[in-house]
């Protein structure tokens, strides 16, 4: 099957690798063409060119501004050729902007599914992501076999924007856990407890979590090459605070983690993996 894919950052590359390993043919576009020149996929010069060959197009971009650009730029996806075709948007969008994307695509006769991803590079390579999907149920059912190639857990929330809101809520847990685990690791070291042993104990104690399982080795080796960046979690925590503000309710536990990740960004460490927040606590 030919599948279009736009946005080949760390997560996008991993998902493409997974799809290709299962026999799908990838037709890809990336704004920075230099970054994908060595990838073994057919490359297009514009987003619109993908529509000539693909019925389903994935977007895996940094934010809603990038999604809007791919849709509305000259030779973007928002054109006559999109009619009857489906966009699966893996981007973590703004909960209000995503409503605009539903309308823009559906009004022109295409199908838009917001489909944010829970998980990063390692589970993506193994087809073990979690996805939450919002959009028309009949469109979701039609593309579900494709989603099953990349995800082990799949949820559908029919009301538009629900999946995006759920992703932001999930990332509040993610950012909070990572900040706490990083501080606990540094505190144990300051007590002269070997880091690897402290992480082993936390992993069967109060720190037991998917976050710790995924980031234990990064904390031990201090290899902070990005799977999920400080920039990304910082953006998402800002968005979840905006969501709470719109709901007129406080969001106590988001404040400190967001500022800690903002500090990492200010220090020029935005492109590092978000586990590198450990560096703020380490002596």
From TrEMBL:
Keywords: NAD, Oxidoreductase. Coiled coil: none annotated. Residues 2-155 form the 6-phosphogluconate dehydrogenase NADP-binding domain. Residues 163-280 form the 3-hydroxyisobutyrate dehydrogenase-like NAD-binding domain. The active site is at 167. InterPro entries: 6-PGluconate_DH-like_C_sf, 6PGD_dom2, 6PGDH_NADP-bd, HIBADH-like_NADP-bd, HIBADH-related, HIBADH-related_NP60_sf, NAD(P)-bd_dom_sf. GO terms for molecular function: NAD binding; NADP binding; oxidoreductase activity. Pfam families: NAD_binding_11, NAD_binding_2. This is 6-phosphogluconate dehydrogenase. It comes from Arcobacter caeni.
């Amino acid at each position: 099957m030919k599948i279009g894919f736009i946005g080949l950052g760390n997560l996008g590359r991993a998902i493409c690798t997974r799809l290709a390993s299962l026999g799908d043919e990838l037709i890809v576009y990336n704004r920075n063409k230099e970054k994908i020149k060595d990838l073994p996929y057919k490359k297009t010069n514009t987003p619109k060119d993908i529509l000539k060959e693909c019925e389903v197009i994935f977007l895996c971009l940094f934010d809603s501004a990038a999604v809007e650009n791919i849709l509305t730029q000259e030779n973007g996806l928002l054109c006559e050729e999109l009619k009857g075709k489906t966009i699966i948007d893996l981007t973590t969008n703004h909960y209000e902007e995503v409503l605009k994307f539903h309308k823009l695509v559906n009004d022109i006769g295409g199908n838009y599914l917001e489909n944010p991803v829970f998980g990063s590079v390692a589970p993506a390579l193994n087809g073990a992501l979690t996805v939450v999907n919002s959009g028309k149920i009949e469109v979701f059912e039609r593309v579900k076999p494709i989603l099953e190639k990349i995800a082990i857990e799949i949820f559908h929330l029919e009301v538009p924007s629900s999946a995006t809101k759920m992703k932001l809520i999930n990332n509040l847990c993610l950012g909070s856990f990572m900040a706490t685990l990083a501080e606990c690791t540094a505190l144990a070291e300051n007590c002269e407890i070997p880091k690897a042993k402290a992480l082993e104990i936390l992993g069967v104690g109060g720190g037991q979590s998917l976050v710790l399982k995924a980031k234990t080795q990064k904390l031990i080796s201090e290899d902070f090459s990005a799977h999920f960046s400080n920039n990304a979690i910082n953006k998402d925590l800002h968005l979840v605070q905006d969501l709470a503000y719109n709901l007129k309710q406080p969001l106590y536990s988001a404040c400190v983690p967001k500022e800690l990740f903002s500090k990492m960004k200010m220090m020029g460490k935005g492109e590092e993996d978000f586990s590198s927040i450990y560096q703020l606590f380490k002596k």
